[in-house]
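Minutes, project check-in

Agenda point 3 was the complex the collaborators sent over. CS summarized: two entities, 464 residues total, and the question is how they sit relative to each other. Sequences were read into the notes so everyone works from the same version.
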Amino acid sequence: MAERGARLLIADDNKVNRLLLGRTLELQGHRVSSAENGRRALEMLRAESFDLLLLDLEMPELDGFGVLEQLAADPALREVPAIVTSSLEGVAHVARCIELGADDYLHKPVNPVLLKARVNSSLEKKRLRDQQQDLVRRFATSAVAQDLQTSGFSLGGRRVQATVMFSDIRGFTSLVESQPPEETIELLNTYYTLMFDAISGQGGVVNQMIGDGLMAIFGAPLPLAEPELAAARAALDMVELVQLFNVERTAAGKAPIAIGVGMASGEVIAGYTGTQQRATYTCVGDTVNLAARLEAHTKEAGHGVLMDGATQAAIGLRLRSMALGEMVFKGKSVGTPLFALTTTPAER
Amino acid sequence: MNDARVIDRYVFSELQVAAGHDFVAELVQTFSEEAPALLTELRQAQAAGAPERFRRAAHSLKSNSSTFGATRLAELSRTLELDGVPASTEPLVALQTEYERSLLALTQLASAAPGA
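CS then shared the predicted structure for the full assembly.
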């Protein structure tokens, strides 16, 4: 009974067919809209959300095959299941529809009992797919979910130009020791909500959360025009959001928090690592190590946001920064030019 | 004219049970409004020598007549759909006659009281 009350769209140029199919589905508890040709059906699918499309094949302007092709090519529409209803004879049409992605094929005149079974089965399949996608989204960010949907899942990496960001709450350990665990969880939830907003708002993807620390990638899996600038803007947003959050905390008699952010840009190997059963989208490479070290260095440097030379060079004069000289990090033989991002909220 | 061979009574009453008597009466009315355009289209497509237009109109008529259980009308339309534009006008005249006969029978059946 979970399938009752679904939103269905009927595309059929024949009025008698349209009315009868609509009536049958309404009697089965669904809400039905109809379109008199394929072009109109696509318009409606793009304007409103439907759970299922019942599609006639022979229609003026755009026929059913054309609709199936366009559905498959449109990432926003390809999840809408389509059941073809037609009185065209011969199995070639049926085969072509299935190949084009139709869920099912019903011969007209459509038997109401069969129709009910097929519609419910399609809706149930869609519900499971939606649930799965929901899970993927919750645990993987929409960019990764989209990448998974378009490219599929495969372990292994590819080289991409990206900006990597690490961030954490300074003095988190002593904070945890000074307050009940429930409060820490609440703090982390709020903190992560704010950081996710700032990062995804600039097109970045948070791919790891460990305690109070997070790692974000800008420019992968989906490319960004200027990953360096997007990351720097996200860092400034993060600092600003934490400042606002601190106003609330101070008012509630709690200690303010401070974050440290490190960013580095360059080539990284990005992809899914793990096993076939459990994998995560991540990236590795020198750039990643450098970003992590820059973040760890923020306290010592006395600046909240640090970045490497490559990130600073790409940003140029669009955001204010300060050169902090060169720094030789552990395991490196040559020094890395170091910059602090010093734009204040008032300057933006 | 309530010839059992014109309308398959079983198909028609199944339709009434599934969709409701009043709705089916409206649907017959809609059919009577839509079908003349299809018959005209068939004649015009034959005159113009337009096989695809002809096939589509025959296809539509076949689809609707089978919905109502208008078996002979469906069969005539199906032959036209599959065989294409006929050489003479005779098949279309026969189709027109069968349509009129079917519509009359359908209208009578649709207006009869449920269970009659």
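Noted in discussion: The CA atoms of residues 106 and 114 of chain A lie 8 Å apart.
Follow-up: revisit at the next meeting once the mutant set is ready.
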